[in-house]
Write a structure and sequence with these properties.
- This protein has 381 residues and is an alpha/beta fold.
- 43% of the residues lie in helices and 16% in strands.
- The protein is globular and about 60 Å long.
């Protein structure tokens, strides 16, 4: 009998980073793939994820409507609570043998809590990483709820072990999104990018920047001030820029209002604002960019392997393992401008393999098919 593996998808980026894992599970002779899709993956402003999944041959088994508007800590906390209720219903109906979750988001915590209370073994991808916000606490909480751990690098594996997890169930497999990059070559055209989003036309045949700066949940009330520093820096720098809209974390309204007010006041001629592009096009943009600016994990992980220079702003990725392609700065316009100049002068970095391992998706599928399952956890000493 095949093991039923229920994979939780909570955003478009989440789906793109996990697609090869889904393919490996789906094609494995001893596994049956189930898909539960929820949170921002169902919000149209963040892309038509369901259509994209169906085009790739994946059909959701359940859809979780859970995201409350507000962009503040209360909305985020209540969304997590709704998620526990809805994920519990989905898992109770699907009766999976394993629930697979990934990362450090509050929506993912909801799924882990629901599965753990239903005595369903939880497999967690990307445990043991460290950042600098509430996401780190959420990540470690999921680790303590999870039964099987897939770490992306050796230091993360060691942290999981220090948290009292059984070494028999802790695997260092690498980062799946880098496998997605390694196996594909993507080309993005001016026509495609300028068809999307708002703002002036940009010419990506010339050197261009990407900005991805999300709210920091532990800095609610300051996010608008912080994004304004970045906006001023990019505006004064004057280089063609593709600017991605923030995610749905607490503080997103501060960031969004800051961007809208800036656009109305300055009408920047060299910036195009996008909410979402499909995974293939996103990787194509990263490969072509001369520098990524902001606080996205894409700068830490994907760009480390590509070699794209990164200016990492603020505390969101604080202490996370990074390659030599990353320069860290604070929320200061002049510092951001100088760091961009430094990174452009350096140019492309040699690819870093700190997060890369070959065949990670198939390895995860094989472990899910063969590992001995259990429900009662004990602190391992």
């Amino acid at each position: 009998m095949k093991r039923k593996v229920c994979f939780v998808i909570t955003s478009g980026i989440h789906y793109g980073r996990s697609r090869y894992i889904l393919e490996a599970i789906k094609s494995h002779p001893h596994l049956e793939l189930q898909l539960v899709v929820g949170a921002s993956a169902l919000l149209p402003q963040y892309g038509d994820v369901i259509t994209m999944m169906e085009k790739d041959g994946f059909k959701p088994d359940a859809r979780i409507v859970m995201t409350l508007e507000g962009g503040n800590p209360v909305a985020m906390a209540k969304t997590a609570g709704i998620g526990i209720t809805e994920f519990a219903t989905a898992f109770d109906n699907l009766l999976p043998d394993i629930v697979v979750v990934r990362g450090d988001r509050y929506e993912v915590l909801s799924a882990a809590v629901a599965a753990a209370y239903l005595n369903i073994p939880v497999a967690h991808i990307e445990g043991g990483d460290i950042t600098g916000t509430i996401d780190e606490s959420v990540r470690h909480a999921i680790t303590k709820l999870a039964h099987i751990h897939f770490a992306t690098h050796e230091a993360a594996k060691q942290r999981i072990l220090r948290m009292g997890e059984n070494p028999q169930y802790v695997f260092m497999v690498g980062s799946p999104e880098l496998e997605f990059i390694a196996k594909n070559g993507f080309v993005v055209t001016n026509e495609y990018i300028n068809y999307l989003g708002v703002g002036n036309m940009v010419d990506i045949t010339k050197p261009y920047l990407i900005v991805m700066q999300h709210p920091v949940t532990s800095e609610v009330g300051k996010n608008r001030q912080h994004i304004t520093e970045t906006l001023q820096a990019i505006y004064e720098f004057g280089m063609p820029t593709i600017w991605f809209w923030p995610n749905v974390d607490a503080g997103t309204d501060e960031v969004s209002k800051g961007i809208r007010a800036f656009r109305e006041k300055y009408q920047p001629p060299h910036i195009r604002f996008l909410k979402y592009v499909p995974p293939e096009q996103f990787i194509g943009l990263l490969k072509g960019a001369h520098c990524l600016v902001g606080n996205s994990s894409a700068g830490i992980k994907e760009c480390s392997y590509i070699g794209t220079p990164v200016v990492n702003i603020g505390t969101r990725q604080h202490r996370r393992l990074r390659g030599p392609n990353v320069v860290d700065v604070g929320y200061n316009k002049e510092a951001i401008i100088e760091a961009i100049k430094q990174q452009l002068a350096h140019g492309l970095y040699e690819p870093s393999l700190i997060y890369y391992r070959e065949g990670v998706s198939q390895q995860i599928a094989n472990i899910l098919a063969s590992v001995e399952l259990y429900t009662q956890k004990y602190f391992f000493e």
